[in-house]
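S1.2 Input.
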Amino acid sequence: MEGPTARLTAMAEVLQIMSGTSFELKAVLEAVVDRASRLCRAEAGFIYRLDGEWYRLDVAYNISPEFRAFTERTPIHIDNLGTVTARAGHERRTIRIADVLQDPGYTHLEAQRLGKGRAMIGVPLVRDQSVLGVIALWRTQPEPFTDDEVQLVSIFADQVVIAIEQARHTRELADTLEQQTASGEVLRIISRSTADVSPVFEALIKSAVRLCAADHGGIVRFDPKTHQHIWTADYGVGSEEYREIVRRPIYYPSRDTLVGRTIMEGAPVRIDDVLLDPEYRFAEAQQKGGFRSIVGVPLLRDGFPIGVIVVWRLSVTPFTDREVRILTTFAEQAVVAVENARLVRALQRQTEELSRYVTPQVATLLASEEGEQLLVGHRREITALFCDLRGFTAFSETAEPEEVFGVLREYQAGMGKEIADHGGTLEHLAGDGIMAFFNDPVISAGYEAQTIRCALAMRDRFHQLASGWRRRGYELDLGIGAALGYATLGRVGYEGHYQYNAIGNVVILAFRLSAEARGNEILITQRLHAAVEDLFRVEPVRDIAVKGFSRPVPTYNVVGLKT
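S1.3 Output.
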């Protein structure tokens, strides 16, 4: 699965299509199934829409004409629970099948024969407990979909639900061109916004007040943990005194206020005249604002309120169902903006933290749900590589500190670049000692050979540096050691100073080989030699006694690539 940047880009692309002035639901669905399939490494993708008692194919990705014809002439009945589609819709939850050929409950064999699907996932499109359809993805190999991929498809499913609902609203309100324009503008702002939702909220509440012919409006954010709700955006005729009152943090919602009542009910609340409503007691706000008719629509995320859109009028003019539907559309868009901002902030925090001790590309990978698990600690086969300078101690004792630091900067920059270029993870720099490892956190095929290529490139790079140093009278050489084996990897350190480390015998061996290596030698273990002997010219050198190992360790020196 591709990284967080690709995911955010794909979501932004879908939102951009949704925000187009000539909104077409099919284009959105095609974009969703295309992005979801590619990001989840699925060979085929489908979106089925529920029509009465039948799931009918709406759009598909990468299927043959024969299979498309089959799906179009044989819709899936809601009771056909032998299919992933009907089962996901019936249970209103994500269905994952690792291998349909091994699943006794799967009976859609003709579809499997035509599509060659093995691993499958079905995510229902649900709105207000009603199933609108299902997103289904297939792989032709029995490779189960991961939890991270399930979460990604669920986000796309949410976007599909929003797109379907937007299409319905567009059809119902086709005579209101102004609403369409305003809705598109908000979505365009969402697609451009990152961690800051303020521009979205400001545009949204301005459009809501105008399209509902209201005098004032605001958006209130609600924190379900602290039960605090705070006004975050407003637009209209309300005085500064009124704004000061409503911006005060309020804890524990109650039916005394419109916001509290909307949060408690989790549904739109209309008060035709607040002066005649026996439960409404926010008299201070009413007196300063002067409003009479008021409506609140909740911002719902997974069924839980995270905020409220409020608009009011100075006159007793009750809000209509049409106006409530307009506000509901804006509320859904606000939730999309909040979710996008939350994802971006989380990724930014994790990436910033991780960038302190791994390369930026590794930090981007680890700033994911899977990456969080990697940080906790895990076992994996890796290659560990150590290198340090020969003659550095004598050099540092006689050279000026500025000369020592100059040499270290050139040396560390040169070696670090080669490690990064060859896909290694730089663990630490300690004086002239450098450690890196390969195959973690990014799993890489052929990492054993890549380790040796990196060591050879480091040696060549060192020769370039050393020629300049010798002209200045610095006699230095380089020794490299590498080993293959299993290690425990994860985050170590404390708040504000973390490192991503590898621990195990493979690290000890690589360190000892580096210490034993003579100038210009690249010493590797017997196990690593066996993994790369077809690609590189090596020569056996000597056995090394390593503390903690019962027998001496055979070592080999890498001469170069085989012709």
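S1.4 Remarks. DSSP finds 19 helices and 20 strands in the chain.
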